[in-house]
């Protein structure tokens, strides 16, 4: 079968291969797989790990497929999305033993398409039913968005749990980044009637800003208003979600938090760049304002299931909005086009 693979840690080694599927457990025919920044960074050779019995890694972790050989629960013809993270494989930690592998403490987890398990940029994959999330047929058209939605579902849930420490009624939120993660987070926040600002580089009037405005949120382009200038308006935010990949702005975000505010970081950044960090002022603001910063990555099975439920809420509130996020579909035979970058892109998918 056709599959897209890399030699891990070798830059620009992406290629179309013929891969033999090991027919075990549930077999899924892939319909489409989303492209995200993680895939591009693996192609750049920044990280990635092949399965133990392979010298290559099939990439892709945002995949939607249809079951062609089922199990006790999943039947032939069911639409499914594949969970990414698997429990740590050696002397499992307490979190993995409890089914919370997204909170693995050992670091020995594996991830489909990223670390130690082949991914979903292939015509077929096989997996256990425990790693597959059923998608009702009416959501199959946007099912490829469930994995990124599950990531923001987790962050939103964790914020609520953390803030049970106090009486908290958030009114205003700021989302940094208008990729699929940022836009989906903005939708969840708007479903909770929060006043939401989305800040991104793309100029106003593009597809991203149109989606932001369609959900009655505010779009701010950093090409038109710098972050520093925006902060001078002295607007404070109860919740800030960072999804831009720019770690240098974290001190500025911290200063924009209201008392009792929460900053959630989702970007995975590399490099060794250093900046001047006003640690004493941030410490003072943190202590006197009861502020909180935390990181959230990946997601739990419960987050995927909540995401399936919220598909319907989003569709009912803003009909057609999720479909507008799928900006490009590329066939597997033209796969190189899927990794090209455009300011108008939100979510590109490869079709099989």
The CATH architecture of the largest domain is Alpha-Beta Complex
Stretches where pLDDT is under 50 for at least 5 consecutive residues are none
* CATH homologous superfamily placement of the largest domain: Medium-chain alcohol dehydrogenases, catalytic domain
Number of helices: 10
Q: How far apart lie the N and C ends? A: 11 Å
Taken together, the total number of domains comes to 2
* Total DSSP E strands: 19
* Helix amount: 25-40%
How would you sum up the major sheet?
7 strands, mixed
Strand-and-helix sequence, N→C? EEEHEEEEHEEEEHEHEHEHEHEHEHHEE
What's the Cα radius of gyration?
Answer: 20 Å
The proportion of strand residues reads 25-35%
Broad CATH class of the largest domain: Alpha Beta
Coarse morphology? globular
CATH topology of the largest domain: Quinone Oxidoreductase, Chain A, domain 1
Q: Taking all residues together, what is the mean pLDDT?
A: 93
Main structural class: alpha/beta
């Amino acid at each position: 079968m056709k599959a897209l693979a890399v030699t891990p840690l070798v830059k620009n080694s992406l290629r179309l291969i013929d891969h033999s599927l090991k027919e075990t457990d549930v077999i899924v025919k892939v319909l489409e797989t989303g492209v995200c920044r993680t895939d591009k960074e693996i192609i750049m050779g920044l990280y990635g790990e092949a399965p133990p019995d392979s010298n290559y890694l099939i990439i892709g972790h945002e995949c939607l497929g249809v079951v062609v050989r089922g199990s006790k629960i999943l039947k032939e013809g069911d639409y499914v999305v594949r969970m990414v993270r698997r429990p740590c494989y050696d002397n499992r930690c307490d979190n993995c033993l409890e089914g919370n592998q997204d909170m693995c403490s050992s670091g020995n987890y594996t991830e489909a398409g990223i670390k130690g398990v082949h991914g979903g940029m292939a015509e077929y994959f096989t997996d256990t039913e425990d790693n597959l999330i059923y998608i009702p047929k009416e959501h199959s058209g946007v099912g490829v968005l469930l994995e990124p939605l599950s990531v923001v579902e987790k962050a939103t849930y964790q914020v609520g749990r953390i803030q049970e420490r106090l009486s908290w009624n958030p009114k205003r939120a700021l989302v940094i980044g208008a990729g699929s993660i940022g836009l989906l987070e903005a939708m969840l926040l708007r479903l909770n009637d929060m006043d939401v600002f989305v800040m991104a580089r793309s100029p106003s009037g593009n597809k991203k800003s149109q989606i932001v405005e369609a959900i009655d949120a505010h779009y701010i382009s950093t090409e038109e208003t710098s972050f520093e200038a925006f902060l001078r308006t002295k607007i404070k935010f109860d919740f800030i979600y960072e999804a831009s990949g720019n770690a240098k702005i974290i001190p500025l975000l911290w200063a924009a938090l209201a008392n009792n505010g929460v900053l959630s970081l989702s970007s995975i950044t590399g490099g060794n760049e250093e900046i001047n960090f006003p640690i004493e002022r941030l410490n003072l603001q943190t202590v006197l304002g009861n502020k909180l910063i935390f990181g959230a990555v990946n997601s739990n099975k419960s987050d995927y299931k909540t995401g399936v439920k919220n598909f319907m809420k989003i569709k009912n509130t803003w009909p057609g909005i999720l479909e507008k996020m799928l900006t490009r579909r590329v066939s597997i035979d033209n796969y190189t086009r899927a990794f090209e970058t455009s300011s108008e892109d939100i979510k590109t998918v490869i079709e099989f």
